[in-house]
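INFO  loader      accepted 1 record
INFO  loader      residues=512
INFO  predictor   begin
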Amino acid sequence: MREFSVPGVYVERGGYSESPLRLDGSCLAGFVGIAERGPLHAPVFVKSFDEYRGVFGGFTSAGVLPFSVYAFFQCGGRVCAVVRAANEKYARPASLRAECSGGGELVFEASSCGSWGNYISARLWNEKDLGGGESFSLILACGRKIETFLHLSLRPASTRYFESYINERSTLCRVRQEGAGGLPKPAFRLAAAGGRDGLAEMSSGDFTGSYTGPGQYRGLGAFEGLEDVSLIAAPDAHWFLETGSSSREENEEAFFRVQAALVTQAERFSGRFAVLDMPGGRDVSAALAWARRFDSAYAALYYPAIDLIDPLDPSGVKTLAVPPSGAVCGCIARTDAERGIFCAPANILLQGAAGASARPTEAEYELLYARGVNLLKYFPGAGIKIWGARTLSSSAEWKYINVRRAFSRISSVLKKGTLWAVFEPNTRELRKRVVRQVSGFLLDLWMKGFLAGASPEEAFYVRCDEELNPPEKSGAGFLTFEAGVAISRPLEFFKVCITAEKDGGGVYITEE
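INFO  predictor   done
INFO  writer      dumping tokens
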């Protein structure tokens, strides 16, 4: 910092605020599904399954969302955003009412919609006759969860005013007063009722939702306001196939609409990728037919369902068939963090998976893989592994998941990292600085082995010259630079030739 000795005006020129471009290993997954409790159609970030359970409840949900989130963290995921879907027309929070001596009522309402709230009970007693003044105490219980609130006051100015005190601390209920005041009448046990999950007449629209602006979203549309979501999945799309009240064709179409919405959003948002589950109970021919309904470089399809060890079974023997998208998202997130987004998310063990619902033959697997279906394959003595890293694209350029995701991540980094150039004088010096910054970033990626090519010239190029920036474009305030990269593709086929000499006579037998 320059020292100023006399009064006056001093001018200092600041440098550009550009900084080295970097790729981080963060991977935020987003799940939409059916939960036992929690806010409806609002994204909630959780960093462990314990956090999920504290907000959305446990494994007693009617859907498979809790098992998918559990598998996500078990397979290496670190953070995810969860959106609880339901039909708001039928979803209701449970409530109970306590009569007051002045004729009014205290109304306790469950903190979220769902039948879980029907298990809430309350015990109240006042302390007027015990020398405690105009106050009362309360115990709220729901299963093993017990909340105790003592010496609650009816005076709004009090620090223990019952309404603000309970509403700020309770995870079970919210309370309000209706009618005239007075202390609540003592009650040994009041039971809540009226809670409904909102599962009646659910449609694909309850999952796909919409986004009309900040704070105005439903279902999958909630992720449109979150820039950092990398992976999206809807494991409870199977709800329509398993419990749908319509015909089989209508239920399958509802399932397809949910998956199509995942793919559409992934294609619209840079850096986003959809992880799709194959509909359950499909044989190979039906699985191939389903895969042909998609052609996108921003989505991958996994087959079959996995047998997850039941977390509620203390013996560790019982298993449950669960869509694989949660476990796959966890493996992808772990690969991003440990090896980088450039590495193919394949040949990875699914932790907690004890088996698969189907085991295609090698010939059947050839058909599936040729169409971009990634197999969850059983290896004796090892377990279930992700055995494929292909997208659902028919384009050879975007055949691999890591190529598509890496290119999207590079584009995002370049977009954000060059914002410093906006409003700078559009001169040759500025163009040189842009080329230098971007080239340094891509050179670092090549040196780490993320880009193909024996030399930097073969791995990437960066242009920002007069040809791309003619006077008419520069005069209009445009600066254009062009970058090309060759991203390393995964090794899929490892050919081993074993040659043996026969009887010392110089005849060789080759086995491949």
